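--- STAGE predict ---
source: upstream dedup step, 1 unique chain passed
mode: sequence only
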Amino acid sequence: MKIGIICVSDRCFNGVCDDKSGPAIEECVKPLCDESVYRLVPDVKFKISKAICELADDEKCDVIFTTGGTGFAPRDVTPEATEAVIEKKVPGISEAIRAKSLEITERAMLSRAVSGIRGGTLIINLPGSPKAVRESIAVVINVLPHAVETLSGNTQSCGGNYGK
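--- STAGE serialize ---
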């Protein structure tokens, strides 16, 4: 599986601090990851959208995780940047992450993160803290192989026998 990681942070982009969430993503997905591609962008909508498109369209990543920019701050625009370039929404992923995160902190309800599909790529917005990244990926890691397989057009394992 080829994983794209986009850190969205003005502070990291400007060298004020180091990205700790991107490496946390890489660590969490290591068992599934054959290759990873990393981008660091500021909290600017068109730059986030451009990075997503590059990783999906040019790099052909199977899954892209963004980290940061999903809250209420004026410059938090990652969900809007993601929605601008996805073709299908996958609300269940973000809902599952929020539901599990609410068991840990009531602040999870403040997340505006979204998930969606662009071409054959699954895009998932994650929070900006390494702890929250680890907790969030733990929610979805087991379904990623099936999601990627289905996106690639391989639906034989599905069988069409849901509920039977």
